[in-house]
Amino acid sequence: MAGSIPASATASAAAAAAPRVGPWREAWRRFRKHRLAVASLVILSTLVLAVLVGPFVWQVPIDEIDFTARLQGPSWAHPMGTDDLGQDLLARVLYGGRISLAVGFAAMTVAILVGVLVGAVAGMAGGRIDAALMWLTDLFLSLPQLPLLLLIIYLFRDALTKVVGPELGVFILIVIIIGGFNWMQVARLVRAQFFSLREKEFVEAARALGASRLRLVLRHILPNAMGPVIVAATIDIAAAIIAESTLSFLGLGFPPDVPTWGRLLFDAKDNLDFAPHWAIFPGAMIFLTVLSINFIGDGLRDAFDPRRVIAS
Amino acid sequence: MTQYLIRRLLIAIPSLLGISVVLFTVLALAPGDPFEELATNPAIPPDVRANLRASLGLDDPVYQRYLNWLFAMLRGEWGYSFVSRVNVDQLILQRLPTTIIVIGAAQLLALCVALPVGVYAATRPYSLFDKVANTLAFVGFSLPTFFTGLLLILLFSITLDWLPFVYRAQIDATGWRWWWEHIRQSIMPVMVLGLFQGAALVRFVRSAVLDVIRLDHVTTARAKGLPERAVTLKHVVRNAMIPVVTLVALQMPIVFGGAIVTEQIFRIPGIGSLLITAILANDTPVIMAVTFVFACLVILFNLIADVLYGWLDPRISYR
Amino acid sequence: MTEDDLRGLIARVKGGSLSRRGFVKRLAAVGFTAPMATQLLAIAGASPAGAQSVPAYRPTRRGGGGALKVLYWQAATLLNPHFAAGTTNQDAGRVFYEPLAGWASDGTLVPILAAEIPSRENGGLAEDGRSVTWKLKRGVKWHDGQDFSADDVVFNWEYARNPGVAAVTSGSYRDVNVVKVDDHTVRIEFPQPTPFWADAFVGGTGQIIPRHLFKDFAGANSRDAPANLRPVGTSAYRFVSFAPGDTLRAELNPNYHMDNRPYFDTLEVKGGGDAVSAARAVLQTGDYDYAWNMQVEDEILKRLEAAGRGKVNIVEGGGIEFVQLNATDPNREIDGERSHISTQHPAFRDPAVRQAMAMLIDRNALEQFIYGRGGPATANFLNNPPRFASPNMRWEFSIQKANEVLDAAGWARGRDGIRAKDGVRLRFVYQTSVNAPRQRTQAIYKQAAQRAGIDLELKSVTASVFFSSDVANPDTYTKLYADMQMYTTTMPQADPERFMNQYVSWEVSAKANNWQGRNIVRWRSEEYDRIFRESQGELDPVKRAALFIRMNDLVVGSNHIIPLVRRPTVSASLNNLRHVLSAWDLTMWYLNDWYRET
Q1: Least CB–CB distance from C166: residue in B51, B165, B279
Q2: Which of A191, A311, B178, C505 is the right S-S partner for C524, CB 3.0 to 4.6 Å?
Q3: Taking CB atoms and an 8 Å limit, are C468 and B170 in contact across chains?
Q4: Any chain B CB within 8 A of the CB of C501?
Q5: Residue C394 half-sphere exposure, CB side, CA atoms within 13 Å?
């Protein structure tokens, strides 16, 4: 095993491309073959479109209280039913989806960027820099999140809302908090991959050919370390959507009247046996998002890695 | 190798010290104090609260409180809880067995399920098995534990009446009944946690195995005529273990730290519930002790992971 | 009916020329409720104390009841009642320790370690209101077999008032003097005439710990007492084991000082979790006998009750959920302090705005759809005991009237629909703690206010921060750095003196007192101050009640305080469990009488 010679993905890709097709077009061609990924792309686009345009089409206000229509199951007037104040759940799911999706993607991006950066630098540099960065990672892993959250909110909320307004201020804060607490896993994964990859023959070869350190990382090592990163990214989106609900439950997130998906799920839980529709719809939304993002992630990996088997 | 270990262990001391400084500062600056309940009770005059704050040393400067804590800790004194006025080490020790049993079982379950399922799914990508395993995994990590826990309670405790949902650390029974009761009440929390942890792990394992399964040395091994099983186990899994070891090392400290939400749902007297009540009550000595032990474990297990990398892939050098 | 008429009637009852029933009937004719009438009699000494306050105890022998399992969604963390912050810990201590007397649900005292309740008639209460003499029950033994005596009582006073001990109960003991008269008599002396004498050694804070086990730990070493975690009390149940933050276990005390009690052989108090699943464990699965403090939406409780195993118990007390409209300006900083007492709130200084705000909260909806039986709508801040409830206050919900009031006062709607006048816009930050029913209330209030051209910005703060006394934090409720806020304040005793001092001017919460003052809304009224002072020296119970009613009317009439719903204590229990509950004392206050009907 130790003596085996793994091929470089990029090297073999270059060799195989005799009639020159652009790598992006080639990737797209391969991605299209991944039927689940394509279907997922359609679903995700529909979801995004729905939460963006939906509130303009379905114009029921999200906070219209109607005590005569409490905890009603799905009907024509309320396709997703109502909650315990008689508020229309479809409107709330559509509106909340904007925030949940935005928080999910933004926080995931923050987590992945920080994680990859820290992991790559530590894995490449080794020595003191590695030790320092891993100290930081260990620190973040061991910090109790709740008191830190309270501290951050207390220190920065007012200052930030003064600069960018309350909604955007809270959004930025939440994204930074959720992202800032989720990068450690990625960092350690990337670093471990780097340790292994940087000693591999194809990296040695590229180094011998005089590739710069940056090029070495960006073209040769990083693409081969992306497997766990993509998985982590897809899991982080789900984690961020759920984490947001925990934050607002603690009074740290969006104001209590903003119905994000996680928040809806949380509010619904005590009524699960009497009004399951309240939980099912936001839960299904989170699940659909996670599902489609994961399949898209799989598709992307297959598309960019020529060694990969393609789903048929 | 030994030298590397010794050096890493020596580095761990200042890094733990650094972490403790940061931890303490965060806790000292974080808002709130342990007297929430006194506040809404009109029978307790406000200056009684002020006296209590002073008697607990909460009004001293932060650096002084930190030094007090540090020197006490060096002498092996963990301090006492502001809320229960019991020594912190006693509180932790009381809860450690339950935590290790329940959370440990969940982690074990997650590992035992996720490893084979992930490997098997990756060797047959996009087969029916792979699709089912993936979908279950997506359900696992897109539903929060507070939700799956409740779902299980409604199903197994309330509708079917098979399992209890209030965890009791002390059970008045002996022999096999004692074991039976403990197992019965642990099933649901272990399932909830195991599903959640296992779901993510399946995805990571599958991805890691997929990453190496098409590598040349695997193809070579296969070409040599080695049986498929041996190929998978010897050549694929070992190479795919690096990310898995990383993840498991990240999960292990949780066996000590507990799982806050799940413990809350099933009323398990674990470290997680100790930590969250301490945090909500701003019981600094308890938070500090739990997180500090947790930090030690984080460092320890990450060090173990670093050592294991070298064993899994001998070309990784220790610098 | 004037005060003199009333007094005449009471005298006739005492003299025997008017029956108690006749008295109640006459009072009912002029609008007094029956409980109020009985209370008037009780307080005037014309009724056998506590006679009907506690339901009859049926079991005819001690023990044999099996296990009693109680569920708290907060867990007890300590067992020394002098350190118990909060009712969960006080309850846990009360399982083992007993006070001289406890408060029954009707607001009367019931003797426990006392032989009788002091009164004018039995010579226990001094004519000048400066002292009260308690006679102790004889033959009471601690769980370890030692005798209970007056020395123990005096010791508790010394212990609690010692600053080195840092007891939570010190407020009840530091201003009084306690003297041992003989082995079974103690006298409490007050520095001035004190109408409310039943504080020290009574109720939750009055639990008495044994001198022989604590006397060596009555100072800075109080934490080291082994008995802190292994309590030895006088109660019906003896200590078995305790895991802080989890489970408390106890067993029958064979030498209990009340006959045939207790009924249960063992007791388990399990803590932790959440209120809804605690309700499920009693009402749906019947795994537990009793679940404490069901802060759950009533709708859910009703559905769980439908399973037919258990029922929900509602016990009236003094707790009230209310809204405060800040009297000062939270957005102007003076000497590093917002909501400074020298400022005035730019909008709430106008009585019309406050009146409109009071009309914009739909208390009926709160009662009907959110709090249910756990939150009857009310117009009064001081609701209980019934003799203190004002008949004069009314409330109404009318968006239309609110609009008319605001129009008339010159608050005109701007282009965005929000009213303004002289550059002041009706846009308020409305804060409360994180708690599902409170967030529902915020949503309901916001919607109604919107229709009257008032914009409410909702803010919720996690309870551990909101209710903390952290001087550095701007989000605590005592700082009131918001235009309005909402929470529940509780009334731990069946007497309103400690309750109504939250609106006197010398209690204003400010930086100078580290925001420790009790007057958080910062409303001030000379008339209120004067009446409050008068009540402190008023020994005549009827006159005193009238004074408190006037205080309530003053503060509620100002509309700075908007009472929403009363918060009786709500609990769940199995159908066959017979318990004795009271909102004026702890859940466990009469645990010795709990039994199971077979």
Answers
A1: B51
A2: C505
A3: no
A4: yes
A5: 2
